């Protein structure tokens, strides 16, 4: 079992290192000049980029752009391991400080969206399998593929139109208070919930036809007990895997959702960092997303043996 845990931790570290390295190579292969963009940004986007050579050299030395690419990679990677992602080109402050100012709204939004998507997805799948009316079952089983086809920005704009502009129940923009979280969290949660409901619903349906369920049913167990005690535990593993995989998608969706709802957070910070080619900031945000993805998948991997003892026996 110890080898299983160590192997999963190794996979998580490999994912984080791979995300950092690929991001570094992609950013440093771009044809544009980050120093020129930095100078243009400091002048309000006006004027040309032909500045004094000493100023350019000083900026390149400050941010390490004058060193060979391999040296830059090794230096930045070593500093990143220690939690130091350098100075933001856009803000002129340490990257960690800037991220610290934006991280809480995004964590709150992503956490609420993930919670809502899990509750909604599980509820649809379980009610669809418990329902004895064919019309209800058919409608609930058709709902996930339909909802999965809705992009987050379209869901967000629809929610804004109905619940903010027409009914006035929730604020249309802003980051203050729980009410401002509700609509963007639902916009993020609906596509993920649809995927969870689809996978769990089909898994439950297959498990209900398994021979051991027939034996339990023959012993007189009630329908609710068969679902919640015997079949749900066997059917939930594919959904847990999907939850781990969709965490990265939720963080990616935050970029669009925070823009639609004019929220301050890491999504909008990433958008402006990409526009300004703020390499240290983009790298730190990608690594942060990779860490969240790796940690959630590690937790899911460690839960497998708890849910299914057969996995624990194979790991041992």
UniProtKB/TrEMBL annotation:
All residue ranges annotated as the ABC transmembrane type-1 domain in the record: 103-304
Any one Gene Ontology cellular component term annotated for this protein: plasma membrane
Pfam families named among the record's database cross-references: BPD_transp_1 (PF00528), BPD_transp_1_N (PF19300)
InterPro entries recorded: BPD_transp_1_N (IPR045621), MetI-like (IPR000515), MetI-like_sf (IPR035906)
Major location (coarse): membrane
Topological category with respect to the lipid bilayer: Multi-pass membrane protein
GO BP terms: transmembrane transport
Membrane-spanning residues: 9-28, 102-128, 140-165, 177-197, 235-261, 281-304
Record's keyword terms, sorted: Cell membrane, Membrane, Transmembrane, Transmembrane helix, Transport
Places the protein is found: Cell membrane
Keyword RNA-binding assigned: no
Keyword Hydrolase: no
Similarity comment: family membership: Belongs to the binding-protein-dependent transport system permease family.
UniProt protein name: ABC transporter permease
Organism: Microbacterium betulae
